[in-house]
């Protein structure tokens, strides 16, 4: 298809790049889905064709992420921001059923704060009420300025509560470019070993929005809830994917009778689970494209392949940053060891240097490199659909820029 | 595009037919949106191109529906089912700010129940708590069996409360095929004249999901909230459109401090309004296709054109139903005068007759005619994208069927 040749390299942070082959297939499905004579966006979500498609999506995620039978995979709308509220409501309902007698002021929600998104999640928990919100750690206290989210804090900084209704963390902070390490031995890994000392089921909730399906999820089975918006690695905006442990799918109405806040029906995990994610009309089209991406991932060797590729891509970009930093042209914003594979952030040193960097990139056909409006700087997002040749193109450009500036 | 020729006539109730020309344009935009070199699903929702697109969508709705400056047009996710909860939470917050002293048991929500969807809305209001739910009228009490939603009840049956936090109705009941008349003089119109006797702003909330943008909205300016899922007349599932009067966009946090239930941030109309519907990533792709449909509507003469066409389409189908009923082949399910333009429901008389009717239709290239699983029968959905030739094709088939069966 000729449109491909006009396409630019898209390093945007989300909505973000999708594989061209998937978009080409989707553009056919828009007019005629699987030979039904009806386009995918026009097809009933109750049709056997769409139900089969959804079942297959579920199975593609389950297989590739190795999701155990203790966990359900659910699809919904509203993005990560809606889950900020939903995880609180569902987990407080669960906690109420476990501890009907416990007062709201004795109910605690534990939050690990490492960036802009976990901070937003804390604020929403405070808005929703019904519990005391405990910030287990705020990584800014470990930054040199005391103000930047630029490091994963050490394990012993995390002060978890005795019996919290949830323990929340954001695996990859899209705005700030910090990420928990995937290696248990690293000081920048999540301190899983500090959890669940009583041997029970840990109420661990993880926002995986910007790293979902970019590599395996460590300790997946120990999580109560993992959620992710699709619009980073696997599809268009409008689809949220949830992995929920069975004990967190509770009768929210029974909990409300015991004093928990009512949970809007479309936010209740029980509604989603009981209806196979089809309680009401889902966002069919974003689901369809996500399903095509998941199929393609499977064909290309699954998460192992993506983990290897994503690691190489990130290493290449960090390497050129290091070079630029040594020559005084770039300045990394995140401490060594805490840097994200998905969102690499840095500054370009000098007056108007960032503007020059971005304009040069745009002329060379590379878009989406501007940092989040709240923090500025440059952000290179390296989601699954960003190809290695595109990364090489970026690295080549950055090398040239360094050479010109340090000459 | 050759795929068009393989397409069938889609009379599904939603997700439902979309114009082929729009789907063809969208399939190009999937790979390259407005020459940006980035597909629409990959483009930042903060980009100037997408912001301009959203502003234009808003203006296309405002112009065609003649939305006054007293009302905001907002876009969100989650469908009508999410609005069942959201209208209650936002309107209870508004009511709390107006009457800080009023107890929950003295706060009333008025519901006009005329079908499956308004019944679901009542159930969700009861779940959400914080007020007494008053069923103003239940149209089943006016049906012959006492069980069917088959008539719009007479005006004097509506017993509105003195000062309710909201008055709710569903303009068109997609499952049951009943609809309020658009003519004030009709006994099947909504009893607007019974409202707002005190001269104040009436808290009138309308679910317009399945008739939004099929014709003008009577008394639009008197509504507090009008909402609609896109997936009937204007786009793919995953987009909800709201028209909200300014006085219903309230500080939900201030209301919560006075004892109202906290409103999840993504459900708060204030969040949506303050951010221009871009608080978090919206469902970009469903918005895009809806925008293309709205542009096409404008080009084709706006709502006046669609009102005329939809009226003709419905009249043709009701005419053949009347003929079939006279000959004992069909049986209308809805009383004369209460029938929907968008969803025409009937039964086919005789053993296995419905099955034969559906199979014959499918062989003739017509899909989506099966009634909702909760009520059975046949349902012919006649949304904007169902063309007049397709309706003629259906009428022709129905005539043939009548001839064969009554021979």
Automatic annotation (TrEMBL), chains A, B:
Family from the record: Belongs to the class-V pyridoxal-phosphate-dependent aminotransferase family. SerC subfamily.
User: Which InterPro entries does the record cross-reference, listed alphabetically?
Assistant: Aminotrans_V_dom (IPR000192), Pser_aminoTfrase (IPR022278), PyrdxlP-dep_Trfase (IPR015424), PyrdxlP-dep_Trfase_major (IPR015421), PyrdxlP-dep_Trfase_small (IPR015422)
**Keyword tRNA-binding included in the entry's annotation:** no
- Organism field: Rhodofomes roseus
Per UniProt, the enzyme's principal EC class comes to: transferase
Record-linked Pfam families: Aminotran_5
According to its UniProt record, in which pathway does this protein act?
Answer: Amino-acid biosynthesis; L-serine biosynthesis; L-serine from 3-phospho-D-glycerate: step 2/3
Any one GO MF term held by the record is:
transaminase activity
Indicate the segments forming the Aminotransferase class V domain, all copies.
10-394
EC number(s) from the headed UniProt entry: 2.6.1.52
User: Would the keyword Aminoacyl-tRNA synthetase turn up in this protein's UniProt record?
Assistant: no
- Official protein name in the record: phosphoserine transaminase
